């Protein structure tokens, strides 16, 4: 109990210091842009390539321009014919069609197949869990992933989490929406009806309880 009171007092002191400092500092930076995922429901999910992925490009009858390429931090790859090909945010099929269009300048009727290794994906497609999770982190989305799956990935709640006060932030139709989620009911009380589908780009915020 004393530890929690000390922790809360420390949090209030730090918050007050930050508030005082911010009042004397330069104007704040604009908020980060949260991009809306192309996945609008659990059945429409398609994997999007991201920085850190490895893409295997096979050009039929043209092994000299085929190969395996690492997606750079800027979301591009470099091939033997073209230095900068934007790939981040595309599905493997979309990338194959893009490369066919590019290679058509050099080859006659190129046929391209793209496969992916590593499966990092764009940051905007990851599910981010912050606050009083045992292991706050960004989780790579897998089709039909649910809240329970995410909480298993992050190791559940901390001792001081307000699981039923958690919210899920999602961008819908270009607008940010918040939904109440009952994590404590789900993982501590076994209330399976509290399990919900999650989508790429969701942000789960788990606050600390004050009691």
TrEMBL record:
Matching PROSITE patterns: PROKAR_LIPOPROTEIN (PS51257)
Q: Which InterPro entries match?
A: PEP-CTERM_polysacc_export, Poly_export, Poly_export_N, SLBB_dom
The family database entries (Pfam families) matched by this protein are listed as: Poly_export (PF02563), SLBB_2 (PF22461)
Keyword Transport on entry:
yes
Similarity annotation: Belongs to the BexD/CtrA/VexA family.
Q: Provide this UniProt record's keywords sorted from A to Z.
A: Cell outer membrane, Ion transport, Lipoprotein, Membrane, Palmitate, Polysaccharide transport, Porin, Signal, Sugar transport, Transmembrane, Transmembrane beta strand, Transport
Record's signal peptide: none
* Protein name per UniProt: Sugar ABC transporter substrate-binding protein
What's the superkingdom here? Bacteria
Q: Which compartments is it annotated to reside in?
A: Cell outer membrane
Domain Polysaccharide export protein N-terminal, first and last residues per copy: 43-116
Boundaries of each SLBB domain copy? 127-206
Taxonomic source organism: Thalassotalea insulae
Where is it mostly found? membrane
Q: How does it sit in the membrane?
A: Multi-pass membrane protein
């Amino acid at each position: 109990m004393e530890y929690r009171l000390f922790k809360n007092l420390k949090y209030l002191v730090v918050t007050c210091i930050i508030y005082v400092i911010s009042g004397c500092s330069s104007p704040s930076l604009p908020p980060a842009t949260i991009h809306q995922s192309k996945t609008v429901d659990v059945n429409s999910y398609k994997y999007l390539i991201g920085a850190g992925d490895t893409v295997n490009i096979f050009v039929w009858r043209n092994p000299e321009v085929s190969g395996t390429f690492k997606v750079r931090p800027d979301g591009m790859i470099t091939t033997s014919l073209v230095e900068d090909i934007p790939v981040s945010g595309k599905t493997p099929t979309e990338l194959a069609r893009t490369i066919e269009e590019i290679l058509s300048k050099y080859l006659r009727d190129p046929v391209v197949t793209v496969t992916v290794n590593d499966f990092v994906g764009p940051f905007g497609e990851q599910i981010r869990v912050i606050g009083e999770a045992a292991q706050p982190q960004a989780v790579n989305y897998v089709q039909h992933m649910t809240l329970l799956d995410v909480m298993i990935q992050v190791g559940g709640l901390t001792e001081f989490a307000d699981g039923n006060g958690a919210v899920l932030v999602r961008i819908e139709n270009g607008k940010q929406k918040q939904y109440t989620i009952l994590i404590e009911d789900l993982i501590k009380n076994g209330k399976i009806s509290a399990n919900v589908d999650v989508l790429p780009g969701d942000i789960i915020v788990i606050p600390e309880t004050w009691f």
